[in-house]
Structures are given as C-alpha cells and as structure tokens.
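Board notes (copied after class):
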Amino acid sequence: MLDRDNHALDVVPVAVLPGQFFPRPSVLGRPEGRLVSAIFSRALLDYCTYVGATDRCGRRHFEDAESWIETRDESWPFSFESSCALLDLDSEAVRAELHGWRDAQVRRFRRHRTVDAAALALHVA
C-alpha cells in the first residue's frame, strides 16, 4: 500500500480470522456430501452418455437425468437445486453449460447422420 507521496507503507493485519487461515471443511468429507456428489455425478454421466441414445433404455437414462437437471424444485434434499447449493455450484451456470454441450452433440449427430446417409446413397447407387 502507498501513501499520498507514493511511499510504501508497512501494513500489518490486525487479526487473521480462522476462515482466512484454515480451509473450509469440505462437504465431500461428510456422508451426505458424498451421497449428493454420487447422485450428481451419476446424473451428469447419464446425461452425457445417453444424449444421442436411440434405444429405449438409453433414452430413459437420458430423460431421467435431464428431468432431474431441469427441475427447479428446492424442497427435496436431493434435487438438482439442493445438490448444487450443497456442492457450492451455480445451478443456472451448470444448466447453461450442459445445454450448450447437448446442443453441440445434437448438431454433431445430425451432421454425421447426414454424411452417413449420403455415403450410403453413393454406395447403393
């Protein structure tokens, strides 16, 4: 820190708070935190794995994960909103990232299907 004449000042903090010195205890170290993390991870895994699924089982996994992510219910302790709050995540930011990723995957699937269909038409002709 500098004074008015741009001379360095020795600034010594009056006190250091425990929160500034010791790291916050991780919610993941508690059983409920590990459970919420596992539920959250499974939903994201299903969402990302089955986004382009065409079979009934894969579509069900994706739709269940998508429904959980899109629900804005905060009353249930294991809802997406409650899970994000416990994990210190911004639920809207997570949703926005997932939507962007999903849309990119859908465009990629459509592009490949179009290319595959054109290649198939060339082989048939």
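Comment from the instructor: The CA atoms of residues 52 and 90 lie 26 Å apart. Residues 117-125 have pLDDT under 50 and may be disordered.
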